[in-house]
Structures are given as C-alpha cells and as structure tokens.
C-alpha cells in the first residue's frame, strides 16, 4: 500500500468532499479521485459511498480511516525519529570504561559531547578492561576504551593514548634518588598491583617476565590511590602510568620513570568487528579523536 494514497484518503474522509481535499493536498480533483479508486482496487473494498450527494464512508472506509490515521502518524513519527537519530538530536550510546580511564580522560570529553548533543543519552558502564572487552563481544555495549593488547580478530581499534610508566617508591627507598629505573632493577621488590580484573595487572607481570623475573605480589587493589597509600607506608612499590603518577601528591612518595620505555600504557577505542555502530557512537568516536588532537605531542 502506498502511504501517499492512504494519506490522501484520510484527507478526503476528513473533508467529506473531494474538491476541498484536492485544494488542501494541492492536486487536481480527477487525480485525487483516481488515487482513491486505486486504493479501493488494491484493498478490494469500497471505501466511499458515492450514491448520495453528501459523501459517506462505508463500513470498510471507516475501518481504513481509523487504522490509517494511526499508520500515517506512525510513519511521520518514524521519519522524525530517524531524522533525530541521523542528525544526533536523539540517541543512546553505551560506553565501557575502566574506572581509571574514565576518571582520567573522560570528564572533559563527556562535557564537550554533551554541549554538542544535549539530548543524547550516554550510559557509562564502569568495568575492568577484561569485562569491557567481554561486554562488547557479547553486544551489551557499543564501544569501549581499554589498554592494549586486545584480540585483533574480534575488535576494531582506534588508537587513543600511548605513554610511559613510572615506578612509585617510598622516599627512603635506595632508588628514590634516581632519574630513571630499568624494570629489571626492581626484580627483588615487593609489588603492589591492581587486581586481576585490570589489564595493568597482566601487563606489568608480562613485562617483568620478559625481563627474566616474576614479581612478588604482596597486595592487590582496584584503587590506584590505595596502591599509592600502601607505598607511602613502605609496604612495597607499584608501577603506574604517567597520567596517574602526575596526580600523586604525597610527601613520602617518589616517582621515578621507567627507562627505556619497555613498559608502555597504550589505550585504544575498541568496537566489535562487523557490528553496526550507531550514528551517536560514530559522533562520540569523533569527539575522542578531537580530544586526542588537543593533547601535547
């Protein structure tokens, strides 16, 4: 059924007059009559009783009118909704962020995005990187930002950040006066790390193994500030990305860069391969790219 024919029939039914309806619709009366007859032929029913001077709807015509009004309104709403989505007046995006990444980088990104698209709903799912990856793979969220590596055969990736890491030691530690530290120099230290839900946990362990040792882990936590507090009471050392290290403000703590850059914190925006990315998701990715361009080189 042609929605235009249905729309014309509804106008004729409202006006109860072909001449008035044709003026409103800006078409000739013969053309309008022909469209209504075509609709009747398509539905194989008579919609308008033409035996009286005053036009009347048949029983079938009343049903088509009643249901047709709803159909036409639905199609108008659909067109408007699609326009809103395509033009980002509306929409929902589900983003997976490990809490560290979210708090470090995304307040500004979210604020800028909200200014541009105030009616878009942003749902933030705060998980460890492993759960973010699982949720994207299962289709529960649209995009995520996680540390590398990730599975290349499952995820499309857009580089987000690449930076070095630092060793966090107590001020009394023999290495606290150094300008930099090689990872192998802390092989006999007690390590305080993020727990296994965080990609940094495995990243640091694998880097240590490459240097010929397995770290002695004495404490794990999900909070970077707690890790630092434990270093401040001299329980052990920890290794943190530079973006986190820059936020530390404890007098008992010394921050010593790892050199050479054998241990890097690389973050990427990830999406499931071959999965449709909604318009709002594409716009959010562009906002991330814009933010990245504003970073110091």
Please tell me about this protein's structure.
This protein is α/β, with parallel strands linked by helices. It folds into three domains: 3-85, Winged helix-like DNA-binding domain superfamily/Winged helix DNA-binding domain (Arc Repressor Mutant, subunit A); 91-159 and 266-293, D-Maltodextrin-Binding Protein, domain 2; 162-265, D-Maltodextrin-Binding Protein, domain 2, CATH 3.40.190. The protein contains ten helices and twelve strands. The strands form four sheets. A five-stranded mixed sheet has the order 4-3-5-12-6, sandwiched between helices. It has a three-stranded antiparallel sheet with strand order 10-7-11. Strands 1-2 form a two-stranded antiparallel sheet. Helix 5 (99-116) links the parallel strand 3 (92-97) and strand 4. Helix 1 packs across helix 4. The two termini are 59 Å apart.
Strand segment count: 12
Low-confidence stretches: none
Helix content: 40-55%
Fraction in beta strands: 15-25%
